[in-house]
Amino acid sequence: MAQLDKLELxxxxxxxxxxxxxxxxxxxxxxxxxxxxxxxxxxxEKKKNYKEELKKGYLEMAQINSAYAxxxxxxxxxxxxxxxxxxxxxxxxxx
Length: 95
Description:
This protein has 95 residues and is mostly helical. The protein has helices spanning 13-26, 30-93. The radius of gyration is 32 Å and the shape is rod-shaped. The termini are far apart.
């Protein structure tokens, strides 16, 4: 079992009343309901942070991939120019 720590929480009266109603309806105590809600919120925040990290990584990789694509484009253009030059030479020599 996980180690427990006490947390003091102040809630608006209406929210506490609603929480008691839900706990009774679900046949759980208020502590279980609050732990579930906090776990859900923490998980949602972790997922949000994870998505932000992925987005950041993909944007960084996009810049790197763009730089590689530009380098390859330059190399491809050089090869194309060399091929065109050789074709042009062979046309001139009559081969």
